[in-house]
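CHODL protein, Glareola pratincola. Tokens?
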Amino acid sequence: SGQKVCYGGLKHSCYKLAYFQDLSRRVGFEEARQACEMDGGALLSLESEAEQQLIEHMLQNLTKSGSGISDGDFWIGLWRSGNELATSSPCPNLYKWADGSISPFRNWYTDEPSCGSEACVVMYHQPTANPGLGGPYLYQWNDDRCNMKH
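Tokens:
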């Protein structure tokens, strides 16, 4: 239930994209994280602009393949735990990579993260949505409620 693509020479040499057109098969953040770990991997940490662009190209190739892919955001491995809200750090600084990466790279959509009850992060993939103030909802990041199905 996913497309696995491997590259030679990169630090993270394999990626697996799982996209479910059937809404009933989409899962919350924790379920997605567990599925990746059961598969021997981790939810994606995007550690550079180059890696972000690589994933964007992979998603573009997936949509070109005629698989009928439509709107549906993708969970990535960035999140914040609710008990950190009591600290004095600004909310955007509280987001951490689930796999322990310390990369500071971020690709937030305009006015994100909105914080509040939204603590888990998706990469936007809404090709049919009308663009907002930050442009099309494609590939930038947004914090969302962790129980949302993506």
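The chain has one domain: 2-144.
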